What we know:
- The chain is α+β, with helices and mostly antiparallel strands.
- It contains five helices and nine strands.
- It has helices at about 1-20, 50-60, 105, 160-165, 175; strands spanning about 25-35, 35-45, 70-75, 80-85, 115-120, 130-135, 150-160, 170, 180-190.
- An eight-stranded antiparallel barrel has the order 1-2-7-5-6-4-3-9.
- The longest helix has 19 residues, at about 1-20.
- The protein is globular and about 45 Å long.
- Residues about 1-20 have low confidence and may be disordered.
Amino acid sequence: xxxxxxxxxxxxxxxxxxxxxxxxxxxxxxxxxxxxxxxxxxxxxxxxxxxxxxxxxxxxxxxxxxxxxxxxxxxxxxxxxxxxxxxxxxxxxxxxxxxxxxxxxxxxxxxxxxxxxxxxxxxxxxxxxxxxxxxxxxxxxxxxxxxxxxxxxxxxxxxxxxxxxxxxxxxxxxxxxxxxxxxxxxxxxxxxxxxxxxxxxxxxxxxx
Length: 208
């Protein structure tokens, strides 16, 4: 009887992860394979169509393959909260045209634990091939009356522990000491749902 209870508890604990691993309407899954392990994203293609489409363009073109997770920012008083950042950095050979910001006010998505969102420069419409993943709630990244915020467009649906592990890695250098001392290579990013739809643009980085 005791063994049966243990088995049932294990199954119930695993149920959410198993459910998340299946396709859902309006969600496109993308697996990020890195030198530190793999995690899976669920992109909100209905609620944040422009932002999700931009990210899928980078995935389907292979523009994230060989890029890095290169930055980690932790809250000083709560170092288990923050975000990790990755993508093409400033590689002009990989970048696609910018697109209008989809704010959290428009999409209804928030920067909660495990949210993937687009990094950008000061201009609200300057997002491109760099992204970040929040660890813990980060409401300051949402839209407000005085700040447009950032474009949340999905969540980590498998292996969030890996993201937390990356958050804890040693940092230093530029950006107030938030650069990973050992960047984590993105081996490849692959779409798990639907057919890939490459942009057809040239890929000059592949010739290097």
